[in-house]
Write a structure and sequence with these properties.
Radius of gyration: 21 Å
Shape: globular
Number of strands: 24
Strand content: 25-35%
Distance between the termini: 24 Å
Number of helices: 10
Structural class: alpha+beta
Largest sheet: 9 strands, mixed
Helix content: 25-40%
Length: 448
Amino acid sequence: MSELYAGFGRVDVTPMMGINLAGYYQVRLADGVLDPLEINALALRVGEAAAILLSIDHCGIVRDIAWDYRRYVSEATGVPVEAVFLHTTHTHTAPVLRRGTGDPLEAEYDQFVRRRMADAARFALADLKPARMGFGTGTAPNIAFVRRFRMKDGSIQTNPGVDNPNILEPIGAVDERVHVLRFDREGADSLVLVNFGDHPDVVGGCKISADWPGFLRRTVEQALDGVRCIAFNGAQGDVNHVNVHPRGGDLNGMFLDFDDVARGYDHARYMGRVVAGAVLQTYDKVQYTPVERLQCLQKTIEIPSNMPAPGELPEACRINELHKAGRDSELPYAGMMLTTVVAEAERMVDLANGPASFPMELTGVAIGPVALLGIPGEPFTGIGRALKAAPGWAAVLPSCNTNGKEGYFPMQEAYDEGGYESRSSYFRAGVAERIIEEGLALLADLRK
């Protein structure tokens, strides 16, 4: 065994019914529970250095609330705030964590989650046992697909619909790698950390679900005796579960939703099983490595905002007002194109008076020769690939929506071409390349 200690904590944070759910630019109120939402916590200690890695089943927690939660966990545990790594899996069938809305359910749930986060962290610290760590990489084929397409008329569309005859070609490529960290502990369950990038937007509807990350955890724990599992979603801003050219039984357990996206609870189960299969490919053959160092590093960067041109505002205001009044039918758009136009208009209205830039935290955790790199939003897969190639590391695991949920981080070419992600992003073109540059610099600093 090395100097490493590892501990695990888990708490249920399933909300009350009637609470707002995240996503889709539509009002959705929870009316049932398909499976529970959880906070999973991995505590690590090497010598005097400690870190708490938290993964919560939510669509995302914006920067200011994430800072408050992290400070609360830090005060409750004594672990420095920069060593509290707060990730949200990005499930779209979970509540919106917001403040100042006047909604009493949201206010109550916010404080409940805050307290439960500290509970999970304390449980994990109390569970610390001597451990050794191994790492490996498996593959989850044919469950993540590029969601941006070039159409035959030259336009760019996100989620253009299943079997749309106007699709010309996908833009980009998926990353099917599943990264696995295994912690074997003296006299206690082994712990498995899984990192894979894909949108948990599979279930749809108004019932609570952790989506495929929840199925992943449960499947791994059912398949491997004496194992607890925690999941960290990776770079997933331009990929999702939709196969636009299905064959055979690809659409089993799915339905065509309001925005022309095929969804289904059974398909979320299938995806969790496929990712769990990659864990099983890897689990027994991980490469064990001494862990003599645990280091956390956070840096704040400023990113220019995607403010509208003055001439764009009148139409943006008109679209935004119609949408907020529930009059989308008066707009000449449907499906994902309607979502794109509404999201773009909201972004323009919100940024009409600035700010000119946004602060953004990048967070690194070095566990021996392996690093996690937290990004506070939804990075395109190009960001993930670039960070994984950082020199000097046995493995780099990018983690989306970590210590913030600030929106999409598209690559430069996505701004040049257009599409939902770049049109809705609150950040100016160049944001992805800046994250890569600063992320690689942070990883280099972690190695010193």
